[in-house]
Specification:
Two copies of one chain form a homodimer.
Chain A lengths: L3 H14 L9 H5 L7 H6 L3 H64 L3 H25 L9 H9 L9 H16 L7 H16 L19 H20 L2 H12 L5 H25 L29 H33 L4 H25 L3 E2 L31 E2 L1 H6 L3 H9 L9 H18 L9 H22 L7 H17 L3 H11 L5 H16 L5 H8 L18 H5 L7 E2 L1 E3 H10 L4 E7 L5 E8 H10 L3 E2 L27 H4 L2 E3 L10 E3 L4 H11 L4 E4 L7 E4 H4 L22
Parallel strand pairs in A: 3-5, 9-10
Antiparallel strand pairs in A: 1-2, 4-8, 5-6, 7-8
Helix pairs in contact in A: 4-5, 4-7, 4-8, 4-9, 4-11, 5-7, 5-13, 6-21, 7-8, 8-9, 9-10, 9-11, 10-11, 10-19, 12-17, 12-18, 12-20, 12-21, 13-16, 15-17, 16-17, 17-18, 18-19, 18-20, 19-20
Organism (chains A, B): Vitis rotundifolia (Muscadine grape)
Main location (chains A, B): membrane
GO cellular component, one term (chains A, B): chloride channel complex
Chain lengths: ~750, ~750
């Protein structure tokens, strides 16, 4: 039996544990948690029972109110995340489209007179935009570089990367990606938008940014990791929904690619957020249609509507489609491997030399990109326009300053166009639209497509990992649709009689490259369907993705996993490793000595223990009256630091104190070195019982490590205590014990005792 | 320390535990599990270490081969499930369409002469089909009644309902739903198809049906519950994919609605299965297009293509759409409540009287349905055909014996049609197509729609729960699209200037009713988009679903949950109940005495214990040499029964035996009463150590019950042992301890020690 003072301590612990941050517990578990009385205690102290019941009811009332408020805030935040991310996406798109629009308009008007002057203006314009981006990122928000998806993935897996969800990162991400995408680099704005959504969600979860005094106490109801993670999951989905105008794709992306823990209630909220984004973006685009947003309107959000394309497919086409899948898998895996090497080299050699090197690097990449995208089309001979069909809305060459196919660039005659310029000397969105376009058979020569593929692939590899916000979706679609269209051209020539559109193959190519590189499946499939607005190609996209992912998986891991690993984000995969099956929990702990605290501990001891190791959790062990030792809970380093900093819970006596309540103000990120204690303080004691987590998860020492892994991974834990085998069993909990009916309508429903665990 | 013989026992247990069915462990955990040596033991017995290592390597090799085979079979099964479910769906559809086609053709040809004769033929035809269905179900496969989704949900939640996944249930489901749907009852074939897919998957998982000698030992690699559940999940997705030709919807349905445990690897396999289904169904339909399948071809699979419908929507339309959402929530909740009452009453009064009553009941329902669907249109006055537009492909009245709008039924003049007959006297698929149809404004009168709504709603409520296979999707769509179109008519009249299609409102109505009744969200949304082949309405469907689900949730639970509860399937929700936060694990066990076994137990004792209670798991407790007791594992009733039946592990000595291997043939569903033992047998002993699960999950006695619930639910457990608090901590496992790198490429990747648990 537990001794009485111990019991007291544990009880109070239940009370106060709820007020401390960062616990392993379920969110609602804590909000509603209140002073509870243990069964064993109520039995021995009968006179307390009635009082306790009244108290319980009152607490339950208050708890329910709190839960209601909490749920309301959750949904309100989902709404805000949707609106915020939608607006951010609209802002980024309008800015990028306008910068790019001015750039191309200016260049086109100058090259009517001089190609050299146009070239210089084009280079300078790009350089300026790219420099603004890299300057913001390196000087102001270093965590905004890259796509951010590996870091978000890590966060949702339980690993914090420093600065990843700050307000300055949000700002850096938004303005940085305007510069880098507007500057014509081989990167996209979609990954950064996911990160943007996650930042918005996280800031809301903290009740605003404390540093910039934008916070409100009323909104600070989310104290637990799990709640924050849920919000960030919503943010990710909102980001994808906004980037591709693909609400269902967003939900699936959040589900498949980023979250590690998922509950179906969360799905509903994520779905709501995505729907809000869809409405916000649609409204904004409707507003822009009247021409209020400058160049934005005809370009902008990627919706490559190919609904007037190929409707049907024949079995003969499955072979070339499978080939596209294989190519996608190979090129995708190669992309992952190359970027891995380059990022590794960059991190260990180049970026160690400071932010000036980073800036020079990005500017160089911008210069090369500009030279290639302007210079290569110059070398290419123009082709005569195809004969104009009646009813065709596609003009050749397109009118200057407009978007569309058949770009007239450095062509002698009027009725000519430059096929390389059509895809190279254009914004990426327009290039993709041109590649996907139907009814434009033989627009591109194989030579141009091949040149573009090689050059753009190289540019994308080199650009990846520079210090600007960079997404891989759009470059991936560019690369994939280029070789897809190439295959499509051969198919058109080979199977002459069929109604085949090269654009369809371009779409499949895009899907295959993304599948081969990112290894997403269902979400990617839905995103592709949503951005092309064509459901009929779904089975084909599925087929191509299956092949490309399988091929890619034979070589390496997905892009995000590789990058996360390289960045030192220790992602826990959903499966235990093979060798874990033969290890026990005890072996996993190794020979490390367990550092534990007694229940009442001297402040000096706490300080020296915290200084001498880097553990984040400490078991607390107490002794019962008859001398047995007993593990009474787990104390986190962060909680100890809060206690040391506030000092109000210090006591002079080395005996357990009376149970007290009182939450602590939570200060994040304090280190033991920041805390200064007088020598008087060091001589005092702390009773840890009210502050520890009284029931951490435990496993017996000889449990198979893969079982432990599952427990850890599935419940999203941070610490598991390994204890000796138990000497006796107090009870056995089965499904029936957990089926507690609500009081209402329990009489109308009669539960049969179906045998719930007969063998089958 | 553990004593030596105990250690032996536990080791052997690891070996043999893998051969017994129905464990709580992860699948792969067991397949690869082999004889392991404990760290502590290797230390004390140094000379054994080398031998052990060689043994380990050999075992690892064999294990890897086994894992490869296992993964291969998994994917092969996914392929087979896809093909099987696709073919089953095609078969059901062809049969239903042909029966219904003959029926309507015959009736239409007879009513040219006599309406009375036509009426009788119609009634008889329906009665015959329905009777065949109810006869098959009551006499041959009682588990095939109803939709089967609640039972499958229960199965995937961990509860077996008797006979739900047998071969005879599969046969009963397929032929039963042909009869019930072909016979014109107010039910659909989609729920049964989900059940069909699950049955196919489960039979494959067992390696065929043992009873019908259709099994193969090579395919019996799936011994664990988890593997079977994964397969059944694939089967569910395949069923939805086949029913609606909605592969993505199928994946999401399996994810959102049926599974309780989900891993992203499974998603990939489920996705593959759905893609296979899509290809199979498409191929079959292509084959049928040439007219080889009789009446199937123009009708059949529900694809209500409304891509020529409304493209855009204005803000003013959001209000009526929200109203549709509210109506859907209200009518859906009412539907759930009414069916709950009727099913309750049926189960407790009507169906207790035997299968003859069930048959009479269904025949009565069929009679009423026939009378209403034939008789009501007779009472309705015909309307004149609208003026024919040029280019319109819709004929009025439609040619006899064809599918389409504007049915001429009991009309005097040539250019007239009966609007009630258009929706009532038709197959449900065609009725829905007619309700969704665009460019047919003012086809229906409000009076007809209202009549139809009331009558069909009542029929659907009454039909639900009868002893035939019955899905609720199509009736739900019928009901919803009727009131949706009704609202649409008012909108068309009210906002005169807008380009509004009544068909769009019918679609939204369908979504709202399904949302209000089944409470699905993302999956339903995707299914609706896939069956209507129109992505543009996605945000509207989302909006309507959000509202209808919220309204419905205010009244009761979803249809499947209600039904599962009524059938005594104890579903564990994904959240713990509110009151669990204040309970401990010990309180949940109550005062039940724990029945445990010693390590070596007398057969007579086993028999008497198994007879005296209904527990399914028993802790096994042994004593070390120095007299301490120690919990060495958990023994399942099913395993004990296998041991008792085979008798080969009986021994004469009451001392622990030498470790032996050897798996047992698994026989399902034996009961203690089936086992007959001689008095000699009863005097013998069994050493349980080789057969028990050596490391069941344990929780300390005072852990909060909501924490226990999460553990139980998230890991899909059947038993948790409640033990006293530990007296000491052997180690602490954190994220870092679980990050074991694979041997390859571990040198290229350098893991930073990112602080994974600083507070934020």
């Amino acid at each position: 039996m537990l001794s009485n003072h111990l019991q007291n301590g544990i009880e109070t612990a239940r009370l106060v544990w709820s007020r401390l941050p960062n616990s392993d517990d379920e969110a609602l578990d804590e909000v509603g948690l209140s002073k509870k009385s243990d069964g064993s205690r109520s039995e021995s102290l009968d006179y307390e029972v009635i009082e306790n019941n009244a108290y319980r009811e009152e607490q339950a009332q208050r708890g329910k109110l709190m839960v209601g408020y909490y749920v309301g805030v959750k949904w309100f935040f989902a709404l805000l995340i949707g609106i915020g991310t939608g607006l951010a996406a609209v802002f980024i798109n309008i800015s990028v489209e306008n910068f790019a629009g001015w750039k191309f308009q200016l260049t086109f008007s100058i090259i009517q007179k001089s190609y050299v002057a146009g070239f210089l203006v084009y280079i300078l314009f790009n350089l300026l935009l790219v420099f603004s981006s890299v300057y913001i990122v390196t000087q102001f928000a270093p965590a905004a570089a890259g796509s951010g998806i590996p870091e978000i993935k890590g966060y949702l897996n339980g690993v914090d990367t420093h600065g990843i969800l700050l307000f300055r990162t949000l700002i850096g991400k938004i303005f940085g990606s305007i510069g880098s995408v507007g500057g014509g680099l081989a990167l996209g704005k979609e990954g950064p938008l996911v990160h943007t959504g996650a930042c918005i969600a996280s800031l809301l979860g903290q009740g605003g940014s404390t540093k910039y005094h934008l916070s409100s106490r009323w909104l600070q109801v989310f104290k637990t990791d799990r709640d924050r993670r849920d919000l960030v999951t919503c943010g990710c989905a909102a980001g994808v929904a906004a980037a591709f105008r693909a609400p269902v794709g967003g939900v699936l992306f959040a589900l498949e690619e980023v979250t590690s823990w998922w509950r179906s209630q969360l799905m509903w909220r994520v779905f709501f957020t995505s729907a809000v984004v869809a409405v916000v973006v649609r409204t904004a685009m409707g507003w822009c249609k009247s021409g209020k947003c400058g160049h934005f309107g005809s370009g902008g959000f990627i919706i490559w509507d190919i609904s007037d394309g190929q409707e049907d497919y024949s079995f003969e086409e499955l072979l070339p489609m499978a080939i596209i899948g294989v190519i996608g898998g190979l090129l995708g895996a190669l992309f992952n491997q190359l970027t891995l090497y380059i990022t590794y080299w960059r991190r260990n050699y180049l970026h160690k030399k400071g932010s000036r090197v980073k800036m020079i690097e990005v500017c160089l990449v911008s210069l090369i990109t500009s030279v290639i995208s302007f210079g290569l089309p110059l070398l290419r001979k123009c082709s005569p326009c195809p004969e104009v069909e009646l009813n065709s809305s596609i003009e050749c060459p397109r009118p200057p300053g407009m978007y569309g196919n058949y770009v007239n660039f450095y062509c002698g005659k009027d009725k000519e166009y430059n096929d390389l310029a059509t895809i190279f000397f254009n914004t990426q969105d327009d290039a993709i639209r041109n590649l996907f376009s139907a009814k434009t058979i033989h627009e591109y020569s194989a030579q141009s497509l091949l040149t573009f593929l090689v050059m753009f692939y190289s540019l994308a590899v080199v650009t990846f990992g520079t210090a600007v916000p960079a997404g891989q979706f759009v470059p991936g679609i560019m690369i994939g649709s280029t070789y897809g269209r190439l295959v499509g051209m051969f198919v058109v020539n080979f199977y002459k009689k069929l109604n085949i559109e090269e654009g369809t193959y371009a779409l499949l190519g895009a899907a295959s490259f993304l599948g081969g590189s990112m290894r997403m499946t269902v979400s990617l499939c839905v995103i592709m369907v949503e951005i092309t607005n064509n459901l009929k190609l779904l089975p084909l996209i599925m087929l191509v993705l299956l092949i490309s992912k399988a091929v890619g998986d034979a070589f390496n891991e997905g892009l995000y996993e590789e990058q996360a690993r390289l960045r030192g984000i220790p992602l826990l995969e959903s499966r235990p490793k093979y060798q874990m099956r033969k290890m026990t929990a005890k072996e996993a702990c190794g020979n490390k000595k367990v550092v534990y605290f007694p229940r009442v501990v001297k402040v000096a001891d706490v300080v020296s223990i915290l200084q001498s190791n880097e553990h984040n959790g400490f078991p607390v062990i107490d002794h019962t009256r008859n001398g047995e030792s007993l593990v009474i809970g787990l104390m986190l380093r962060s909680h100890l630091l809060v206690l040391l900093q506030s000092k109000v819970d210090f006591q002079h006596s080395p005996l357990p104190s009376d149970p007290r309540g009182g939450g602590k103000p939570i200060s994040k990120g304090i280190s033991i070195d920041d805390i200064h204690l007088s020598s008087d303080d060091l001589e005092m004691y702390i009773d840890l019982a009210p502050f520890l987590n009284p029931s951490p998860y435990v496993v017996p020492e000889d449990m198979s490590l893969s079982k432990v892994y599952n427990l850890f991974r599935q419940l999203g834990l941070r610490h598991i205590l390994v204890v000796p085998r138990a000497s006796r069993v107090i009870g056995l909990i089965t499904r029936k014990d957990l089926l507690i009916e609500d009081n209402e309508n329990s009489e109308t429903v009669e539960l049969q005792s179906t045998s719930s665990s007969t063998a089958r």
